[in-house]
Amino acid sequence: MQQRPFKQVDVFTTTPYRGNPLAVVLDGSGLSTEAMQHFTNWTNLSECTFLLPPTPEGAAAGADYRVRIFCPGRELPFAGHPTLGSCHAWLEAGGVPRGEYVVQECGVGLVRIQRDGERLAFAAPPLIKSGPLDEADVQLIARGLGVARADITAHAWCDNGPNWRGVMLRSAEQVLALRPDATVLAGLDIGVVGPRGKVGVVGPQDAGDTQFEVRAFFPGNNGMAEDPVTGSLNAALAQWLIGAGLAPERYVAAQGTALAREGRVHIERATDDTIWVGGASVTCIDGTVQL
């Protein structure tokens, strides 16, 4: 056991305790996978990360640090809010990137992170699986969400590590009203998005400060759980929606509203077609842990 620097960061918000919390152990050296998993489970948070030096291969390719990402019960190859929260913690602790971007090494390879004022943004990783869902899945999801099949106006695989199935409903209000049935949706990771305002061929118009409402449902220990703000899902949704002409090339999505959070996810497609997924982070706890 030794003292290790630790931060608990709230991601996708500028207001503490209104985003998605993340535990970050800034020095994970010497810890076994079992020890990392045990500590993650103990935090009772959706994710915990452990920062490490990059592998020799990662360092040669430009990585500034390596991160291992855990959720209760398993390790993840990639996740969005842990990527931004870990980078925030690393920079705040004195980390200095070697180049224009911060480069994170993780299970899916190297992920670029850019800085824009108080916001950080990661380059969305390639989708592992895309394209429309099977109709049987769509009908099952509609039943599990408690909506008519006709209320699902579009759907797609949104798999970039986490195995999200994405569906679009008619409006943000309909998304906020959902009360999913855990029995019907057992075993499925579901991302739901709905537009605000009037929808045209380039996405919602006259929608105020956010253009979409997003919710993320997944199986939990006590039935269906909901994630406050989900970077990986928003990255995959953006790749789908922008590519399909269902969203503009730059927009802001709200998530967490149904959980009394105020998550804001900033999406932008650059001229090279990279989709950047960004948000602010704030440190809520700063100290050490015994591990």
Quick overview of this protein structure:
The protein is an alpha+beta fold. It has helices spanning 33-43, 56-60, 80-92, 135-145, 172-176, 231-243; strands spanning 3-11, 20-25, 48-52, 65-71, 74-76, 102-106, 109-116, 119-123, 154-159, 163-168, 189-195, 198-200, 203-205, 212-220, 223-227, 250-255, 263-269, 275-290. The chain has two domains: 3-124 and 279-290, Diaminopimelate Epimerase, Chain A, domain 1 (Roll), CATH 3.10.310; 135-271, Diaminopimelate Epimerase, Chain A, domain 1.
What does it look like?
The chain is built from 6 helices and 18 strands. By secondary structure, the protein is an alpha+beta fold. The protein has 2 domains: 3-124 and 279-290, Diaminopimelate Epimerase, Chain A, domain 1 (Roll); 135-271, Diaminopimelate Epimerase, Chain A, domain 1 (Roll). The radius of gyration is 18 Å and the shape is globular.
